[in-house]
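Pilot study result, target chain (235 residues):
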Amino acid sequence: MKKEDIEGVFAVCYTGNAERQSRLMRELGRVGFNDVNVIWSFPSPYRKVILRSMPHEAILDQKPGYWGCTIAHYCAVKTAYHLGMGHALIVEDDCRFLKDVDTIWNNLLEVPGNANIVLLDHLMEVNVRTLHETDKFYMCDKSYSTGCYIVDRKGMERYIAMYESPVSGKYRKPKMRACDHFTDVRYMGHDVNICRAEPRLAIQCDCGGTTNTGGSVIHDCYVKSGLDFGRYQEW
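Predicted structure:
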């Protein structure tokens, strides 16, 4: 995958901290992206809307910001799809790239041609489908984290369908899953190819002012993987 294959960049930004957005924009500029679409993640206004459609999901009462971020991802993907983009990069405002520019793009040249979702950041080493699809990317049935990923047309279509599917079933469980959890072929479809960068090309961090709701969990996952988490806080 070449830089020109990515037709749009969408930044999911937290409304309460403009500095997080400005830091992300500097980071995206460092790796060659200057034309960025900003999708705001609203911590609370979406809550009532989502509760009306899925009243059984108690977690919506507990974590409205989490679901505000989820809807921001949905808006980003749907916008990219309706603009006719073939590939879009979605990145959260607490994400940083780990490598120099040349390394990032040299690694991305090895993205499998059949990949629909490419996770540049991920937190769970689970369900590896093919150990070495290429030297730099593993295919997987599921992973975790939507801090930084590339999605193609097929991935966009499945993502949109998952979020817009009617609630059904004995317990009225929707196919919809919160951000960080949708990267699972059980929800996207087993014909959707998800791959993750090995080693990671990006990492989530506490970018100052507002800490991730799961910051300690994120920190622990990175530490277990041998990454120096603190090094990237002030990249």
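One observation from the pilot: Helices lie at 18-30, 46-53, 59-62, 64-82, 101-108, 153-164, 185-188, 215-224. A full batch analysis is planned for the follow-on phase.
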